[in-house]
């Protein structure tokens, strides 16, 4: 579901204390359930704050703060086509996300910065016998800055309860490419959509606080089977990409991406304009992870070309 605001009257105002303590209404009772390490145990309330800015001809990490399970990454110059871009690998020292975790990631790109952020590997969300896991992500991209937020897939295991909210704050001349990839369980062992609940909210707003769009996804397999028409049918992987920025030719990019996705193999995909000409949304369904990731990489490559940026190169993990 995508909703848009036509003007500042419905602007979203998010205070600092709200960002880290967001709880969906249907998980309020679950958050009160006790967990073995306690709600304030080491690694249960992880926080990662990063700020990037141009320094000379390159982008550098100018501020970093982390609490377990996060660590502050290094800003690397490993993209051969765009050496001025900083590449950061978001690392968690735990094996995944577990019951009772409350994780908050905040990233700021100051004017003129260029950053590609990814993760070290897929993120596993383990079963929640009690409580649940919640993650908030806030990406603030100032004027003339460029961000690719490109994490690896998220895999909720059987009986997992997970909610995530991503807030994308974009300046008038800023660009954001953000993706999310959901894998419906440990597919190779026959586990498909056996989690209890998966909630994802993506909200985009201007730096002045005006709501651009809101996109929400709620999957609860025990309430309504997903392997049916009108839901996910027999697909097991869902990829989503948001392209935001001051692009003057979104219609042309939609046509380009639509043609490319129609010819992609082993996926079913669609692309559309976001409300208020904020950008483009693409979604890709697949039976396996690899074809979906390949289609998303194709979107990134074509988006870079359309934005007049250096070619997109695959990065080693």
Short recap of the structure:
With 317 residues, the protein is mainly beta. The chain has helices spanning 16-20, 28-31, 250-263, 289-306, and strands spanning 2-3, 45-55, 58-67, 70-71, 86-92, 102-109, 114-119, 123-125, 133-141, 146-149, 154-156, 161-170, 175-183, 197-206, 211-219, 237-244, 267-273, 279-286. It has a domain at 61-249.
Q: Which helices and strands appear, and what pairs or packs with what?
A:
Blueprint: E1 2-3, H1 16-20, H2 28-31, E2 45-55, E3 58-67, E4 70-71, E5 86-92, E6 102-109, E7 114-119, E8 123-125, E9 133-141, E10 146-149, E11 154-156, E12 161-170, E13 175-183, E14 197-206, E15 211-219, E16 237-244, H3 250-263, E17 267-273, E18 279-286, H4 289-306
Parallel strand pairs: 2-6, 5-7, 6-9, 7-10, 8-11, 9-12, 10-13, 12-14
Antiparallel strand pairs: 1-15, 2-3, 4-5, 13-16, 14-15, 16-18, 17-18
What features would you describe in this structure?
- With 317 residues, this protein is mainly beta.
- It has a domain at 61-249.
- It contains four helices and 18 strands.
- The chain has helices at residues 16-20, 28-31, 250-263, 289-306, and strands at 2-3, 45-55, 58-67, 70-71, 86-92, 102-109, 114-119, 123-125, 133-141, 146-149, 154-156, 161-170, 175-183, 197-206, 211-219, 237-244, 267-273, 279-286.
- It has an eight-stranded mixed beta sheet, with no helix packed on it. It has an eight-stranded mixed beta sheet with strand order 4-5-7-10-13-16-18-17, covered by helices on one side. Strands 8-11 form a two-stranded parallel sheet.
- A hairpin with a 2-residue loop joins strand 2 and strand 3 (58-67).
- Helix 3 (250-263) packs antiparallel against helix 4.
